[in-house]
Amino acid sequence: MSASKVRVFVPADTAARSLGSDQLAVALGAAEQAPIEVIRNGSRGLYWLEPLVEVEIDGIRHAYGPVTAADVAGLCKAEFWHGNDHPRYLGPTEAIPYLAQQSRLTFARVGITDPLSIDDHVAHDGFKGLHNAVSLSGAEIVAIVTESGLRGRGGAAFPTGIKWNTVLGADGEQKYIVCNADEGDSGTFADRMIMESDPYALIEGMTIAGLAVGATQGFIYIRFEYPQAIRTMREAIARARAAGYLGADVLGSGQSFELHVREAAGAYICGEETSLLESLEGKRGQIRFRPPLPAIKGLFGAPTVVNNVISLATVPIILDKGAAYYQDYGTGRSRGTLTVQLAGNIKQGGLVEIGFGRSLRELLYDFGGGSATGRPIRAVQAGGPLGAYVHASQFETPLDYEQFAAIGAMIGHGGLVVFDDNVDMAEQARFAMEFCAIESCGKCTPCRVGAVRGVEVIDKICKGENEAANLELLRDLCDTMITGSLCALGGMAPFPVLSVLNHFPEDLQARG
Ligand SMILES: Cc1cc2nc3c(=O)[nH]c(=O)nc-3n(C[C@H](O)[C@H](O)[C@H](O)COP(=O)(O)O)c2cc1C
Ligand code: SF4
């Protein structure tokens, strides 16, 4: 790069590309009068502003967005490389309130670095956690992760350190680390962002997990709908191996760790860890009976850690800055930061990483800016398709696993899908049952048959057939599915339905 060239960042993740960032990068590259060097980074996660272009001046990035290829001539006329004013100018990126109010720990490098550049990663504190980990024993690493209070971000919020400790203590010549990158929940994209925009964070987290429990092999299970994440992870693994961060002798420690990517067929049930393991073994994705836990008898019958992408990508900062640093964020038993994904009918959709404890209302209005339609927000589905619909009267609830459970809701993977007052909640209740019927693995009756009956009963209620009796039957059916299903798909699909019965009863009745 010539010394006089200004660095201009144009995101190259799937979301920004779908909004035209590739064409924009080409147009900027072709602007010969512009003394700029175009670098492809990841998105900052302010999706309503994508494609977001950043210009680096004296080490500070200035944002312009949303920008299309058609804006390039005007930007060049304004000499945007000096950070000059323009209708699309947003000021210094870090000062945009949506970003300024966040605590980016897991996502610290996302949108900052060139995703595949190891040098860039290292220049931004990458691999520091791994450097610390190689000098510790497995038990010491597990103790730090336990003390940090990190809980699984895939859905169940199980303490990560306790899971690792079980695998550490399990007998087995071969142990595995499996990363769950199936990301099937509605409105979620955080895993994809990590893999496309900071793949080394995941590689580092998985390698630390391997050192901690004594596993020498790891698999990343990514749904096929994420082709760019698959490509990026494969390339990053090859580069990390060549640079000595993976392979037979991780950072000269004498310990080995290898990573492989496996492309998944994209079935919702294959996000459940035991189905995922079946699928990884080349079998049909069906639930396994528990016990034994995967931590004792997991992939190919060996002790296995199964963790979500965010859980694993959070481990490096904990090993770098210490358990107390991470613990300091959060509230109650929900420690650290939560990555919320704002989706659906929301004005400012995107990724928000904040300490646990902020209210749902703050997320929806302070960050989200209210609904995209400008109408009142009536309901939010939190935690994916099996999560309850949260009523507007519950929006003061703090984002905290226990406080959400107390209102019959869940945080899950942090997805929030927003609906305005035009939503038909009977349709949403029906969708929950229909989704379960379509995605059921078929192994147990309450789910396989119950979900189909659930759709039928809701249809009858809406048609006014024996309304009171069918409403009672619907509750009874929900109860049967919750108590009788083998896994959380059938066991939780009733929760959105019950939330409609309890909080939106005016919608679930005979249509005129
Ligand atoms: C039906 C169903 C789908 C799931 N889908 C996912 C998924 O897409 N990604 C994920 O990380 N966890 C998913 N889970 C949770 C996993 O079973 C498991 O708890 C998780 O991968 C463990 O990692 P964690 O402790 O880091 O959260 C799903 C669970 C169920 C019941
Ligand atoms: S609840 Fe549904 S998905 Fe889970 S084991 Fe039973 S049939 Fe399969």
Structural summary, described in words:
The protein has helices at residues 14-18, 21-30, 72-77, 97-100, 118-123, 128-133, 138-148, 160-169, 190-197, 199-213, 227-242, 273-280, 309-321, 323-327, 360-367, 401-406, 425-439, 445-448, 450-463, 467-484, 488-492, 494-503, and strands spanning 6-11, 36-41, 53-57, 60-64, 89-92, 176-181, 217-223, 258-264, 304-308, 330-331, 334-335, 337-344, 350-355, 377-382, 389-391, 415-420. It is α/β, with parallel strands linked by helices. The protein is globular and about 75 Å long. The protein binds flavin mononucleotide and iron/sulfur cluster (SF4). The site of flavin mononucleotide has 22 residues, from strand 9 and helix 21.
* Structural category: alpha/beta
Question: Care to count the β-strands?
Answer: 16
**Oligomeric status:** single chain
Mean pLDDT: 97
Radius of gyration: 24 Å
Report on the biggest sheet.
5 strands, mixed
Summarize the model shown.
By secondary structure, the protein is of the alpha/beta class.
Which secondary structure elements does this structure contain, and how are they paired or packed?
Layout: E1 6-11, H1 14-18, H2 21-30, E2 36-41, E3 53-57, E4 60-64, H3 72-77, E5 89-92, H4 97-100, H5 118-123, H6 128-133, H7 138-148, H8 160-169, E6 176-181, H9 190-197, H10 199-213, E7 217-223, H11 227-242, E8 258-264, H12 273-280, E9 304-308, H13 309-321, H14 323-327, E10 330-331, E11 334-335, E12 337-344, E13 350-355, H15 360-367, E14 377-382, E15 389-391, H16 401-406, E16 415-420, H17 425-439, H18 445-448, H19 450-463, H20 467-484, H21 488-492, H22 494-503
Helix pairs in contact: 7-8, 7-10, 9-10, 9-11, 10-13, 17-19, 17-22, 19-20, 20-22
